[in-house]
Structures are given as structure tokens and as C-alpha cells.
Write a structure and sequence with these properties.
Blueprint (H helix, E strand, L loop, with lengths): L3 H10 L1 H12 L2 H17 L10 H23 L24 H15 L2 H11 L4 H8 L3 H19 L4
Length: 168
């Protein structure tokens, strides 16, 4: 059985690798630091769930990836406006009405524009992934090899990071 001290040593030893992974996910140093800190805290809180003699680094990468995805979904949810007026007043406003003037809504629109400009073969797997489907499920539904699904999602993520780097 691994001691708490061994666990903490392992956690410290993977910090640099985790930071590099966080940079790849966020494309922003400050957000990467936040993601690394959140991942480390989550690992410490869930130390009892780690199975000794398994891939510690892989376990940490999974925690980080899941936190990143959950945070992304949270941002999307927070930026989704539900029109609850009786006559759907806000939904019927012209697109350039200025109603969605927040910076976040603009970023979300820009992300959608970029994803929608991609060929369907990239757009569909990425959209399914963001919706919560696992790689394997996407591969089965689209009748594609698992590696193809992963590479298309990766390509789309890279394209988003590249095209949005000026918006940060």
C-alpha cells in the first residue's frame, strides 16, 4: 500500500508534465496554472481512490482532462441564453441587435463559427465529443477507427486554439 508521502512525491514528480499538458489544453499560461492547481487538489482529495501500482501519471492526465472538459461544458452552459419571455422577444431580435454584447458570448460565437467552418468529417466527431460522447462511442456511431476519431478531435482542438489565440 502506498503511503500518503509516496503519493505526494509522485504528485510533485508529475507537475511539469501536467503543466505542459495543461498548456496544450488551454493554450494560456494562466489558465494552465489554474487547471494544474485544480487537478492537484482533486488528486489529493481523491488519493484513496488511486489504485497503487497502476499508472499514476495516466491517472493524473485523466483527472486533468476531465476537469478541462467539465469546465468547458460549464462555460458553454453559462453562455447559453434561454429566452423565457412569452413572445420569445430575445430570440426574435436581429442578430446584430447588441443583446449578446458580453465578451464570452462573442468568444462562443467565434468558436462555433470556427468549428462550423470545418468539414463535416472533423466537425461531427468534435461536436459529439463536446456533447459528452466517449471516443469509442463516437468511433462506433460514425463507423470510424478509434485513432481517426482521436486525431480529428485533436485537429479541431488545435484549430480552435490557433484561431482563438488572439481573443485571449
Amino acid at each position: 500500500m502506498k503511503s500518503s508521502l509516496d503519493f505526494q512525491k509522485d504528485l510533485v514528480s508529475v507537475q511539469n508534465d501536467l503543466f505542459r499538458f495543461a498548456i496544450k489544453l488551454t493554450a494560456n499560461r494562466e489558465e494552465a496554472n489554474d487547471l494544474l492547481q485544480e487537478t492537484s487538489l482533486k488528486a489529493l482529495d481523491n488519493e484513496d481512490k488511486y489504485t497503487p501500482d497502476t499508472n499514476f501519471k495516466g491517472w493524473m492526465y485523466t483527472i486533468m482532462r476531465n476537469i478541462f472538459i467539465n469546465n468547458y461544458r460549464k462555460v458553454v452552459r453559462e453562455q447559453t441564453y434561454v429566452d423565457q419571455t412569452d413572445n420569445l422577444y430575445h430570440l426574435n431580435l436581429p442578430q446584430n441587435s447588441g443583446f449578446e454584447s458580453t465578451e464570452g458570448a462573442y468568444d462562443l460565437k467565434e468558436m462555433r463559427r470556427i468549428v462550423n467552418s470545418l468539414p463535416r468529417e472533423y466537425r461531427q466527431p468534435f461536436s459529439m465529443h463536446v456533447a459528452g460522447f466517449k471516443y469509442r462511442e463516437i468511433a462506433e456511431k460514425l463507423d470510424l477507427p478509434l485513432g481517426t476519431v482521436k486525431s480529428r478531435i485533436f485537429f479541431t482542438r488545435q484549430k480552435l486554439q490557433e484561431d482563438l489565440k488572439d481573443f485571449r
